[in-house]
Amino acid sequence: MTAQELDLTTLSPTRLWVPRHVMITRAAADLPHTAEIIRRAELAGVDDIRVLPGNALTGLRGATERETYAAAKNTLAVVVAPPSALKPQPIPPSADWRIDLAKGCPAHCQYCYLAGSLQGPPVTRVYANIDDVLDGIRTHAGRGSVTRGTLERGNEGTTFEMSCYTDPLGIESVTGSLAAAISRVGAGEFGDDVQVRFTTKFDDVGELVTLDHGRRTRIRFSVNAAEVANRFEGGTARMPARLAALRAVATAGYRVGLTIAPIMPVPGWREQYGALLDDVAAAVAGIPDLDLTAEIITHRFTPASKEVLLGWYPRTKLEMDEDLRSQKRSKFGGVKYVYPKQTMTEMREWFTDELERRLPAARLLYWT
What we know:
- The protein is an alpha/beta fold.
- It is built from 10 helices and 17 strands.
- It has an 8-stranded mixed sheet. A 5-stranded mixed sheet has the order 2-1-3-8-6. Strands 7-12 form a two-stranded antiparallel ribbon.
- It is globular.
């Protein structure tokens, strides 16, 4: 079945984020992509769209941290990416390079990876100077060491990760940035041997399946055990909807993937993750030319992220007990708290065996 043969009426998103407020900085106001964002926001029914007198985002702080969080999560800021954000950065083990379409995410994941890494209220900022952002693909095509030229992943070409600091599909209905990137890369604007990739917890793929992607985009769906997803991933598409979207984009010829993350050894984790792998296998059954990868990431946290998360979600049941964890230090001296070695070994062995047994079509890229 081709993208043209898909019944798009079955692809209505189950979870669609519509901001209450769209703030446009003065520097971004006259850029062509801003006009597209305004068009999409108006179509989505956003009433409060305003151009700021300057480039500072103001009025986002409330009387409490919770009020600040709520205001920021309901706001889309249209800004210009500064020069420091335009130079692609190495992003192992995911891809050769990172390029950012936006920073910030509308979801409410209680283990949020962005906590502690972004400054200020968690407003979602989309970059209006998209030509400058995507130019990093042009300047860095043919370079890199994670996939480019490697034996294991060389067939992917030079890869560019677009979801390090956002869920780009979660905001796509009001930004159009993904469609622009996928279409331009698919048309060969940046050469034949490049690939963009992103991870999402949303299911709004109705527009993406109509694009001429040239098989140069890999869409990965973040998936998890039912207990983890249902308890800790607020504001996202539920797991059956994500798997339906996975099938839709794979049927439309996209390269696809699973980001199984964050793995947690919850009670009955083998049964729960086994059921997840079986559900994925059913979702991709019978798809011709399936190109499916898997990336597996265990849960970890830093002291800074724990502090932020407890401010956002003071009643969370997420386990963040340093006494139950092992410390992992970066080359710069930073500390992450990961599961003890025995737990990590046990989970890694189980996932490696069960992924091969239950989902042999999946190619495991890495475990961390």
